[in-house]
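Sample 1 of the test manifest.
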Amino acid sequence: MAPMTSTLGFAILAVLARADSTGYEIATRMRHPVGRFWTASHSQIHTDLQRLLAAGLVSYATAPGPGPQDKKVYSITPQGRDALRAWVTEPPRSQPERDELVLKTYAAWLADPASLIEMFRTALRRHEERLGEYEADWGAMEADPPPFGTPAFGNMAVLRCGLTYERHRAEWCRWMIDQLSRSLKPS
Amino acid sequence: MAPMTSTLGFAILAVLARADSTGYEIATRMRHPVGRFWTASHSQIHTDLQRLLAAGLVSYATAPGPGPQDKKVYSITPQGRDALRAWVTEPPRSQPERDELVLKTYAAWLADPASLIEMFRTALRRHEERLGEYEADWGAMEADPPPFGTPAFGNMAVLRCGLTYERHRAEWCRWMIDQLSRSLKPS
DNA sequence: TCGGGCATGTAATACGTTACATGATTCA
DNA sequence: TGAATCATGTAACGTATTACATGCCCGA
């Protein structure tokens, strides 16, 4: 069975399943918090919404907008909700895993260790920052965890993933810095 | 300063910096072991090699090939090596982080918990398998760690990343399974 | 003899980013 | 007055996947 829409389409449906939104609002949520695991520019979202509309997975109501055109508040349709629900439990296609920092690391043996240490220190700082944010969010949630069946359950689940991911990344950066430091001053 | 080539170009250079190869061999290494952090199809590699050639970053020697055409054994040029070395320590552009399983998780609250458990169990198995492989490789390396300046250092560094990544993923999958199981039979 | 590995490439299509284009309101 | 936010869209370009096209050699 061919999929109804691209993965981006499901990302949009996942956002609309939580709240009706304009294309602009979807784009905003695509930056934060969805941006940690899926991204899209507003132009891509607008074009994809037209496809979802043609497929009957979303509908919209017009409202007077700030610009020259009316704004369109999109909603997920029952068919859209069904399609999303079915897609969620389908096994994810093995995906292209692209990680520029790791690729650089693969070729790191050619480069200057001191510059590499600086690069990994910058990366480490970023990961520690994010980890701090996630841990704060986690603390607020842990007290009474949201039950399955509510959107907040999804929030908690992806937060948990981000948390362990940032820990792993920070740990690896520290290991890299340690290894590279040793190569600078061998005992 | 505009980059000399796309990221894929640097991935190819990183492979050629280890050993001269035909386009076919590069494609093979792009599946394993490079495939864990960068992927490309052979058609993309062939076209990109032509660009790298035009830019003077690679050269090739012809040899009689199995098919109708001669095979081309590519080498990285000194300029290619310089470009790669310089690229390695440039800060990575923040990249589009796309993870289908996490996206599904974000919408998981809509779906059937039992099916979700199955999906995460499958994912967990895959991560544990890989972790096993990585740990075996690691054990073989840990005894005498390769020094910086050798390609094997790059191998070890990316292996270390894979190791902590798979651990994080497996841990998260177990947490998800646990959460979802609780929602099935609440005490 | 038939499928898989080795080896080269092109073409069509899909997906994603950046730039272009418009325009009201709000806040400094 | 000028930048930021809200709000819509199109066009051009770059990157990536899939399909098409060829053909030898080797082992089952």
